[in-house]
Structure formats: structure tokens, C-alpha cells
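Schema walkthrough. Field components (list of strings):
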Amino acid sequence: MALDLARWQFAVTTLYHFLFVPVTIGTAWFLVGMQTAWYRTGDEKWLRMTRFFGKLFLINFALGVVTGIVQEFQFGMNWSAYSRYVGDIFGAPLAIEGLAAFFLESTFLGLWIFGWDRLKPKVHLATIWLVAVGSTASAYFILAANSWMQHPVGYKLNPVTHRAELTSIAQILTNSTLIRAFGHTIAAAILTAAMLVLGVAAWHLRRGGDAAVFRPAATIALWATLVAGVLTVLIGHEQGQLMTRQQPMKMAAAEALYTTESGAHFSLFDLGPWQRRPNKDLVSIAIPHGLSILADNSWNGRVLGMNDIQKQYAATYGPGDYKPIVGITYWTFRIMTGLGFLAVVIALGGLWLARQPGRLERSSRYLRLAVWAIALPFLANLAGWVFTELGRQPWIVQGLLQTKDAVSPSVGAWSVGLTLAGFTLLYGILAAVEAGLMIRAAKAGPDGEGTYAPAPEGDGAAPVRIPALTY
Amino acid sequence: MTLLASAHGYWNLQTFWFFLIVVLWIGYFVLEGFDFGVGTLLPFVGRDVVERGTLLRTIGPVWDGNEVWLLVAGGATFAAFPGWYASLFSGFYLALFLVLVGLIVRGVAIEYRNKQTGELWRSRWDRILAVSSAIPALLWGVALADVVHGVPIDAHGEFTGNLLSLLGPYALFGGLTSLALFTFHGALFLTLRTTGELHARARRAAFLLALPAAALVFGFLVWTYANAASAHEKGIVPGVIPITAMVLPFVAWMLVRAGKDGWAFAATAASIALITLTLYLNLYPRAIVSSTASGFSPTIFTTSSSHYTLVVMSIVAVVFTPVVLAYQAWTYWVFRARLGDEDAPHSPLELLERSPLGRGTPQPGA
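Field assembly_structure (string):
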């Protein structure tokens, strides 16, 4: 019972945290681009764009930060057996993240928000660059820790202390799983921010709002969506191939592939009795040979099915069920990849419209679609995490430690249930407050033209003082 | 305890990391201590939403960076002493949950208060901020006192008590002490960062808080010393460290009377640092004291990471810590200017101008 509640708590707090993280990372780079453009050109529209999207960034950032503390604490609180077993390895990237990345991000964000009229423009521009570098580096170290759980490297098992111990920090930080997960996550973060910028710009363009700001914002966002979308898909494909070797069970479950096949088809849509199968589909749409091509780059490549992997694992690790929940793994994989492709299609559609000047602004239907499409990357991000974490089950560290053995022995079900209820309630309220603020700020639009225009020559007035962003 | 330490000597990486973690906690308490104090004092020193906005602005640029000290202290404990991290965080489960709720709500209150202009919106967040600042300020004292005084821990390093076993009289006294001292520290921070009427009120608050805080610190350290003596622990350094820690709040009181705000603030900062150091010296080389049996107390040697991990982390710490200290110090330098009435957008016209309404854009649902 305590175990199930602890799992739910991890799912709730982590998925919630991950609503905000990609927006922070992606939008930080958008702000870097916008403010750098203002610094280089002096064109006021870039400044108005920076400050408008900066406000949205800050509303999002606040929840990302406060829910991040829970992430670090709950390994010790709910998963103390895990912490003892892997702390020698897992703690290092977490501590490095705090010292090398999170300090940077938080400190320079304070300088960015409040430093508009206190720092030289060049120095102030540097602060947002450092925020973006810090938040991206943060993702790198956190993913280093997570990738070790997917594919443990650079460790040995100590028979005296009964735990995994670090033998090479370099291997942890250059884990093949990490390199791809990092590329995939950062591309997805930029995709998320791009679709957010696109949706907000579309909302205003549809109502004839500030075209000087939102027309270029939409164009940039469309290109970013396309590039980031394609990169997310390509790196994701690389990840999938690697995963077929490193975590074959996860990939087999993603395809609901029970029996080993050569020339395996790739299932697009399938309804059937997941736990038993095979060959009892109610509805099934599939691409012949698709899976073999995806997994192995070959027409008739052999793809291991779950039943065979189960036999192998039972022989290696002892009796037990080593299959994840197939239905969830199968569908989250499809939601993630399907929405990724959809994002690329939406970007292509927008760019097609934008070929002729003014056509995008007039296309009311496309603009409305772009507003609703803000939800796509968030759903894809959540589905991606559920897929990669749930697909690893029953392992918490692939091949080393099972989730059921990782929970805190001293924490009872009542305690976990109470905190689960508490976090869920609190997070729910904060989500409502955040969404309200975000929508209001997004609808309010940027500061008017001329807000930051320098005073006319000979007026004797000082240049306009740019105030702190939100106080 | 001295026996245990001398078996390993003092020149080892475990001891180095123990004291590095002490430094991180000191950094956290000194820095976020005044953030908590400013938050708690908000409704008392600021009379309206505009004044409270100015007060909040004194910590606005730095509070988030200050909080990272906690994350790094936690991360460092995880990396260097996984067993300590596991016992501590799972043992102090519900207490840490309350701390987390406090920190979450507080961070949101600071960041969201000014995202809308309504009077009701802001005054509500101000009240929430005051309460959510006081809760962790109190609970950190409780937790640290518990770690040093002892909680039920079995032979495997697992906590066997409940929330009530964390709320003994000594621990609660420790909580009141940290709450009072942080609030006093926060009042002094405000005297340093404000002008005019706000400055005068911050000084009055500091003046009122000084003696109660000093008395609590005095009582808490005497109690700590009595506990240590009755447990025949000579680990605690008799003399200079705890006695200086005890005297400093009184010195701060005299300094604030003499109008030396800066020195008074330095005195409370030093007192917080020395109290923390006293408690950890008393703890060393244990990680948490077991009240079940002294032999069950996990130590820094039984809970530490492998030698290799400690070496790696030492290099990381030696490289990055000075850089972090440098840019955080620079931040305080950038925002050194005092804030007063003139810094708040407080004329009704200006408030209106800064609100979206003033720009002529229609507000749906406003």
C-alpha cells in the first residue's frame, strides 16, 4: 500500500514539475534570441517582445522552482532504500546540478528581473544568457542521473556495503543514453516553448492585436517548431534504436510485441486484450516491416518479443514478472510520437501560409488551431515521461534494483497517503492560480509602441528608464 | 564520541564533507533566515500593499538564489552521505512535508503577489507569505535540535518514531529560537535596505525583537550544553563558539540602539552561523543521534559514499563554490541601494498606468 502510494506521489509530483520545466528551458532560449535582437538592432519591438514573453516565463518559472525542491527531497523521504543503494552514484549529478547549474540560473534570473535599470545593457543581456545556460545545464545533470537508472554505467556492486558504487564519473556524464535523452529533451523543450509562443501570437493576430510584435514572433515560432520538431523526432528515433538494445523490454512493450518476429510490423493503432494476446486484435492498423526498419534499419530485422525477453530475465534475475503495463506503455508511446509528428505538420502548414505576406494573419481557422495546439507539446512531454519511466518497470534501476525494494521502510501508508493528498490538493490549487495568471498576462499583450522609445532630441529628458519586470 | 572520531582521525574526506555541509547550512540559514524574517514581518512593518511591496522588493532579487543553498545542502548530503540523507529525510517525513508546503507556498506568494494589481489579491498573498515564512523558520530549528538531541533510530539507521517524537520540549524551544532569531535578523536586514518611514519601523521591530531573541538563544544554548554534559559528550567546544553565539544577539541589540544597523546585522548573521556550528560540533562525528541507543547513531563514517565519489565531489566543490560565492556577492552589490517610498509605484495614477487597464486594452473578465 505504502509502495503504491509512493509511486503515485512520484508520478504526480514529477509530471506536475515537468509541465513547467520544458517551458522554462525553451522560453529562456527564446528570450535570449529576442533580447539579443534588441541589443543588436535597438528596435523597440524586440524589447516589447522580450518583456511580454518574459512575464509569461516568470509566471511559469515560479512553479517550476518551488516544485523542484520536492523532487530532490522525495528520494530521501519516500525512497530511502533506493537512496542508500544508489546514493553513491545518483547523488553526485544531483549535487553538481545544484552547485553548477541551479545557483547560476536562480541568481542570474534575479539579476535579469530586477537589473533592467541597474546593469549596463550588455551585462543585462549576459544575465539572460546565463539563465538559459543554467537551466539547460540543469537538465543535463538531472538527465545524467535518470539515464543511469535506464542504463547503469560506471559503477560496481560492493558486496560489503550491498550497494552500487561509482567507478567513473566520466562514464556517468557521457552515458550513451544521456547524450540522446538530453538532445531529445532539449529539442522537446524548445518545441514546447515555440508552440506556446506561436499560440499566444496567433491569439493576438486573430484579434488584430499588436502585429509589430506578434507577426515576427509567429514566424520565428513556426520555424522553431519545425526545426525542434524534426530534431525531437530524429533524436527520438536514435533513442528508440538504442533502447531496443539497452532496454528491449520497454521497446517491445511500446509495440505490444509479445512474440519475437523478423520483419515485424509497426502498429499504428491497436485495440486488443493487452495482457494476453497475441493475435487477438479487435482493430489493428499497422505498417508492414515498419518496426524492423525502425528498430534495426533492416527490412527483415529480428525484433525480440516480450515473451522471450521475459524468459531471459527470469533466467538471469530469478522468477518474477518483468513486463511493464503494456497498454500504458503502448499508448503513451503513440501519444508522444503522434503529437510530435503533428507538431511538425502544424509548423509546415503555418509556414506554407506565411509564404504570402498577410495570409497567415487572415487565416482565422489556422490561428485558432494554433491556440489549441499549445496543449500538444505538454501532452507529448507528459506521455514521454510516463512511457520512459513506466516502461522500465518493475525496475527502478534497470537490472539492478526493483521499485518494490526501493521504498522507505520506515514510512507508513498513512504518512505517504497524507502527503500525497496534500501535494495533490496544493498543486491543483496552484495550477488553477497559475493558469489564470498566465491567461490574463497572455491576453493583456505587450506594452504599447513607444513605451521604451528614447525621448526626442533636444527635449533635455533622460532616456526612458526600463523598470524591473514585475515589481 | 571523541573516541569514535579519533579512531578515524580528523584528516579524512568524511570530516571535510561534514564541515562543507555545515557551511552550506550556515549559508542557507544566514541568507534565507532574513528572507523568512522579512516575510514574517511583512504585515507588521508594512501598513498597506504598497509599503509591503517595497519591503518585499528588498528580497525580490535574491530570495531564489538564497534558497538554492538548501538544495545544495540536500544534494551534498545525498552525494556524500547517502545513508545520512536516507535516514534523515525518511525519518523527518511529516516535518519535511510541512517545510516543503511552507517553501512552496512562500515562493509562489513572493512571485505571484505582484502579477496582478488588485488590493485584495495582494493583501491576501501578503498574509499567506507571512504565515508560510514563519512555518519553515520555526521548523528548521525544531529539526536541527532533534538531529542533535536524538530521535528514535534503530540498529539499521531507520527512524522508528512518529511526528510527536520530533516535538519534544527541547526541539520546540529550538524552533522558537530559530523563529525569533530569523525574524530579528530579517528586521535588521530591512533596516539596512530601507529609508524613511519604513526604515524607522523596521528599526522599531528590530528593537522589540532583540531581547526576546537574545533570551531564547541564551536559553537554547544553555539547554544544549546541559544535554551534552548529561550525556557525557565532550565534543561540544566549551567556551568561545557557543558563548560568542550567545552574546552576539545582545551585541546586536546594543548596536541597533547605537544606530549601527550594518554591524547589528553582521552580529545576528554571525550568531546564526555560530549556533549552527555549535550544534554540528556537538553532533560530530555522528550524522543523527539515536535516542534508542547511542550505538545506533549513524555516523559520517558509516553513512558516507565511497572514497572515489568523495574525491570527485571534493573537486567539484572546490572548483564551483568560489565562483558561486563571487556572483552571489556581486548580486548583493548590484542591489545594494536602499528602497523607500519613492521606489514604489504608489500614486494611484502610476498604479493605474502600470496595470493593463491603463493601457486602454479591454480586460476580459476583469
